[in-house]
Structures are given as C-alpha cells and as structure tokens.
Amino acid sequence: MNTFVVIGGDAAGMSAASKAKRDDPDLDVIVFEQGKWVSYGACGLPYYIKGEIQSLENLVSVTPEEFREERDIDLRTGHKVIDIDPDERVVTARSADGETVQDYDSVLIATGAEAVTPSIDGLDREGVYTLGSMSDGKELREYVGRARSEGELQQPDRGPACQFLETCNGPVGIVGGGYIGVEMAEALAANDFEVYLFQRGNHILKTFSEATSETVVEHLREQGVAVYLNAQVEVLDGEDAVEAVVTTDDCVPVEMVLVGTGVRPRTGLAEAAGITLGETGAIATDSYRETNLADVYAAGDCAEAEHVVTGEPAYVPLALTANRHGRAVGQTIAGTPTEGGGVAGTAAVKAFDIEAARTGIIDHDEAQKAGFDPITETIDANSRAGYYPEGGTVRVTLTADRDSGRVLGGSLVSEYGEGAVHRSHALVAAVTEGVTVDEFSDYDLAYAPPFNTTWDPVLTAAKVLGGRLN
Amino acid sequence: MNTFVVIGGDAAGMSAASKAKRDDPDLDVIVFEQGKWVSYGACGLPYYIKGEIQSLENLVSVTPEEFREERDIDLRTGHKVIDIDPDERVVTARSADGETVQDYDSVLIATGAEAVTPSIDGLDREGVYTLGSMSDGKELREYVGRARSEGELQQPDRGPACQFLETCNGPVGIVGGGYIGVEMAEALAANDFEVYLFQRGNHILKTFSEATSETVVEHLREQGVAVYLNAQVEVLDGEDAVEAVVTTDDCVPVEMVLVGTGVRPRTGLAEAAGITLGETGAIATDSYRETNLADVYAAGDCAEAEHVVTGEPAYVPLALTANRHGRAVGQTIAGTPTEGGGVAGTAAVKAFDIEAARTGIIDHDEAQKAGFDPITETIDANSRAGYYPEGGTVRVTLTADRDSGRVLGGSLVSEYGEGAVHRSHALVAAVTEGVTVDEFSDYDLAYAPPFNTTWDPVLTAAKVLGGRLN
Predict the structure, then answer these.
(1) Which residue, A13, B132, B381, B464, could crosslink A8 as a Cys pair with Cβ 3.0–4.6 Å?
(2) What is the CA radius of gyration of chain A?
(3) In this predicted model, what pLDDT tens digit does every residue of B191-204 receive, in sequence order?
C-alpha cells in the first residue's frame, strides 16, 4: 500500500488528506499535527473574540473524530514532526509517548505560518497577545470576558474615544493595521474597549489601494478607534504587565496590547531537510506544489505560489489558496496530476460597517518590477440605482498597464452589504484572464436597480480608466 | 459639418448621442424622440409603482434640458420618425408642427422594444395594463394610489392570501412570470393587493435555471402570491372593466390585470427602409452595430447582438447592452471604431426577500443547438462562513459542456443581501472568457467569513460539476 504523509493538520494538510483518501481509498494517509486542533477556521477567531461565535468548537469544520472515523485518515494530533529524511523516505515525529519513524511514498509539508516578531521591546510582558492559533484566540476571549465584567462594574470615563459608549473598557493597543488588526479593532470596540491602533507607515491594509486604506482609516476613526499612522512602536512599557505603547512620538497608556504585524512561513523543518526556499522566504514549488525533492510537496501558508499576473512566485498566505492547493496535491497523490492554479493576491476584510476587497497588482513599484507601466484610477459610484431607496457608495481603484491596457489589479470599498467584496469577483476573473480594461468594460454583468447602476461600479471604473488609456 | 441622427431617446440613443458629441464636439447630433421622456430608467418603474420612489422624474438620469444645454445635443421630443431614405440619406420626422426632413451622414436606429400582445381575449378592457413606458408606469401608480385609499377605508377580508395583511386590496392578476411580472408582484403585494400570477409554462423567469425558478415560486407563495403554473390565460372577462382571469382550468376574480408577456423589437421603421432583420426578428448588425445599409446603425432593444458563448446573433433586450452598444456607436461615429462587445444574456431580479441572477446558456436544448453537450449541476452552499452569525443559502446552478469542460452558463438565487447577483459577476467573466469549470474553480476569489465560505458558492459549484466531468 502507498503511504501519503501529511505534516500539519489545518487547511492545506486536511484538504490534501481528505481528497487523496477520497479519490484513492487504498491509500494509507497519515497526518501529523503538533497541536490538538485540526481543520479550524482561524479567520473566524476575531468574531469568536468579539462574542458573535459562542464556542471555539464552532470554528472547526471537521473534527478529529470525523477525519478518523468517517474519512479513514490516520490523524495523529500531539505529534510534532522533527525530521524529514528524503533519502530514507521517512519522517520522524515526536509526541508525549516518544518518537515515531514513519516511512512515506509521498509527503506534504503544510506547516503553515507563524507570527512575525517585530523589533519592539517588551513583547514578553503580561497583557501582550498575538492571534495566530486557537489557543491565542481562547486567551484573548478570556481577557475580553474578564475586562468586560470588570468594566460593567466600574463604568469608568476614559476620555473622548469613549464618548459614544455606555461603558468603556481598556484602553487597549493594537500594533499593526493588517486584517487581524482591523478585525480585532472591531471585535474589541464591540466589547466597549477604547482602541488605539498603531500603523508603522501611513497605509493600513497595505496591500489594498491607498484610496481603500484611507476610507477604512476614516471609518475606524468615526467608530471611535484612535488610529496612529506613521507610528513606529518602540517599547511596550510597564512594570510587570504592559502599561503603555511607546512610539517615537507618543506614549499611550494601555492595559493590553495585541501585536499583529504579519506572518512568515514556518520553514525550519523543510530547510533542515534540504528543501529550497524561494526569494520570498517561503518554500519554492513547481506548479504541482512539488519541492526540489521528489515526492515532497509543500502547500498553504508555508509555501510560494505563482502569481497570475506576473507568473512569478509569490507569498500570499491565505485560506483559499491553502484549501485549493492542498486539495490539488491530494488529487495528484491519488493519481490525477492537478496544478490547482495560481494566486491573484485576493483578500477581503470587514471593518465595522464597511467592507473591502483587493486583487492583483495595485502597487506601482511592484507593477514596474514586473515590467508593467502602471496607471491607476479611483472612482466613486452608487452601489444601486440612484433612485433606489437603499444604497451607498462603492469606491473602486483599478490599475492597468498603460501599454497593453491589461487590468493588473483593483481594490474596492463600500458600506457593509453594498457589495465591494462580491463585486471584486469580476476583477479577479479579469486579472486572471489577462483582459484589457476595454474588454472588461464590455462584460455583460448583471444589472437591476436594487443591485447596481446600469454599469456596475467595476465597469464604470474600467470605462473611466479606459478613457485615460485611449 | 457632419450630421449624426439618432432615432429614439432612451438608453441606446442618448448614450450614442452623448458619447459622439463628447468625443467630437464639431459633430451635429440630432435626436428624434416620439415621446416626451428621454434617458429614463424603465427598470425602476416597479419601484415607483410600489411607492419606494416618489416621482417619475427621479427615474430620469439626464433631463432634456441638460442634453440640450449642457451636452449641446439637438434633442427633439414629440418627433416620430416615419421614414428613413438611405438613398437620399434623409430621415423624415412628424411632430405636432408637421413634417421635418433631416439629412444625415450617419444614423442610429434606437427604437427599442414594445410589449408583445398575447392571444388573449379582453386585452382592451378597462383595468388591463401593461408596463412598457413611463406613462404606463404613471397609470399603474395612479391605480395603486386609488385602490390603496379605498382599501384603507374598506379593509375587506378577501380570503387566505390576505391572512398576512392588515388591509387588503385587489384581487389583481399578473399574466406572465418574467422580470416585470415578478417585480410587479412585489410592488402590488407591498400595497396590500391580493396578487394572482399566471405563468403559461411551469417555469417562471424562464431564462433562469429550473432550480432558481422553483426557489422563486416557493418564495412568492410564502409571501402570499397565488402562483398558477401551466396556466393558459384565454380571456380577461368582465362587463366593461376586467372582472376575472379565465384560464383553461380556472376562473379567478380580479379587479385589475397587468399583462407582462415579454417584448419584441420595434422594427417597422427599419424594415420599411430595407434593413435586414435577423432570425430573432430583431435588426441584424455587424459587431459595430452597423446594419446592411452603410452608415445606418441599430442598437439597444430593437437590435441583435452576438452571444459571447455561441458567437451567434441573439436578442436580449436589456439596459446595459443598450447603454454599452449605444456608447460604442457614438464612439465609432466620432472616429474611433468600437465594437462594444457581445451579450451573455445576463439578468438579475429581486423578488420580495430574495435575489436571483443568470448568465450564459443554461437550457440544454439551446446548448445542444449551439453544438454543446451540456451537463448541469445545482448546489446549495452557505452564503457566509457556517459559524458566522449572519447568513443564508446561495443556490447555484452551473451548466458546462461535457467534452471541453467549458462553463456555458449559470443561475444563482439567495436571500436578498446574500449576494446571488454580485456573485454572478464571476460567472459572467467565466462564460465570456470561455474558461473550463476546472479553471474556474481555481479562481482566487475574495474570502472572509462575513462574505462567504472559503470556497465561494460559485467555486463550490464548479468543483462539484468538475467532479462529474472528470
């Protein structure tokens, strides 16, 4: 019997294991997961901490028991793989019961990503959190629960940011204005914390367009979040526990800090086995996710993927890619070689009452490095027919190559429910298929007054940008 | 000076006039419109009748005065063109002041569509309405207003369909379950009418998938609309005014009937001028919308357009195509030949608390006629992450060609606000670009828990259909 070993039991790993076993029931599929959770929706953690999801278990799409019993996968939680030996074709795993040596015919490295540790003093103080794992989520929820019950007793008056709130907790600091930072600002503010968000540069959600970023900042401020741009955090100061966020310019008293300054691929195991990393620092693979070692694959947040616009390797650690590439590897292992496609760098985020999405290449430096001559246009358009009783504004940023007219990327933001995210689907397709702005503006998109103007905002953006190109 | 004559002042006509004049200010642009309204959003009429839009003027995007004064277009309302003479290159228009003969260098026929007259007796009775024009909309709104004030006085008890309503008007009949029929069911029910909807076949919204259609029928019934399927309406009976809808099986007492059994292209003027019609009965054009007569163009609801899937001429009279093709003709006339793209047959509709969209080719007969071997799959998927506190279900129907795997078309339905319509944008792109279901399922669409599951429902549909093809 053929043996497929999977290292890491989250999105990529469990997608691969499930697909391989389903397509080839004779395959022996063994998954080593160092923790106790598998196949969990880490993207849901901010909503759990916010209090909208009652239990961590709710985030688990398939339980360990289901994988074992219904899907017949040999899932070994509490097993950390410490070595891959490609010559002997074995992996060694360590658990509370000692070491296991397991031979393999093929192996998938799906070790995911880990939080970047920024160069800030005081990261080890009590009250400093990160949000990368289920147990991080549990701790943050417990913190919120404790502070909430105290806050409800004390009802302190903590200054201007609290003016909208009946009770006020905090103050708390968030270092980093990425997805986690923005989503956690919402989660903490919803629990009546006074929230201070620190962003190193002047551009939160930095892969989104400047126009989107500015819109989100404005909205966060309207919601009472104190956003500090160009804020270089140097120290998380305090006696034992954290008491202040110290930047080059300010010192803001806080009772808790969440550090969300991005992630990096977890590649130590792969490097030790002689696996090549790419320029991005993540594991390099071919289009089938195979590494430089035969029969050793890598997928998900530890690996690169080719960008649909540039064709070059990129590191975009997000859930859909992990699922898709994991599934493709499973299908390949089961006998049907499957590529699983590239990445467009698509992402979506909700921030209080607005939503935003981005895809492709928007940044001009990045576009120029890839050989394009970028041009960008941002438009505001009604989200529904102007005469329709409901509706808001969709702000669309579109970037194209001046020479070819090719759509390179875009970014959208709207009120929550006005469709910035779902409307981005059309842009993903345009970016993936390499169409020009003129071709894109000819797309026969759905129209009815409750959903858009006759020209959907994305088409209007293409029309306006097209006008600047012609 | 060059003279561009436009016949018809709605979407296609005014888009062409505006674009041509904007791109070439030296052009003499003359528009003949037989009515008094131009550039109006007929798609908004159901919402005006419903009472959500207060004035007909709100539906007008640009007023006649703005066209004349700001855009410098010679707009002549109240002028009906009665003849095009391609040899003399003149058109003749009739108005209250007599006849005008106008020479042209190029002319656009944008005469739109008119309501189909079904073979039903009694269409001329009082209380029988259609909804094709602004004045139709005005009459219907007045009817609703009158009935409403009576109903509020009388508060009659009109049987089971009224059980949810505090007051009840009607009963009223709607003949035809297309967009107009469905949107007007909502508009009339919102005004407390007891609504009876009659559909000839068993499939309302007949270009949508059966699964979508069934979902909409079920929802209409939940909302208290009595839907009669396979109902062949023979007579609208009554003394002077209409009093009953008589089908082969039933006789339903009504006080008003709206007939919405589709539209046909208004082609009399073109035919008389020797212009060729296509097999669909609409005006045949090339990809630049030029007819068989040199410098005579046709666009919008009176003309054909090439279907992006089949490449063959199709008749899909909808607003976006009219706008897009009108604009393309304007650009061509102004010196930049522009095709304006084909049609995918995309459409969207809101029905009470659900929304639906469709695109491409779904019907198997139609697919087979175009040389495909169609296969269809329908799936239900969560509209947001399963653990997210809000959300509903998106039902996606996807049709592909068995041999090539090419996505031919799709249909989606969800609760209103759960994104069936905006999610269809991705499908329009897939259909337009001719991608396979496997390629489509690899699209890197935006994901975050408040907006979808990791695989957006359209990707899940592609994955499932792909599994049946491989």
Answers:
(1) A13
(2) 24
(3) 999 999 999 999 99
